[in-house]
Amino acid sequence: MMEHTDANKHVLKLSEEKQHEHLLDEIKEVSRLLACNRQWFELESNQDMIDRALQARYRHLLDVAKQQGIAVPPFETYF
Asked: What is the pTM of this model?
């Protein structure tokens, strides 16, 4: 059985932190896209379809973060 050294544990923790950071960045980006979508497609007839797809992705990312125990801080563009 292979034991993790302190250095290996540190690398694993950094990797996990990077994954969490990436997930939070993606949530921020989808939130930003939702805000842009509302402005950009305000008069378009397919706005609802695009908005629903982005909201579904946003909810999915929040669920993934919750499952991983990642606290999602409030962002300005939350709806």
From this structure: 0.47
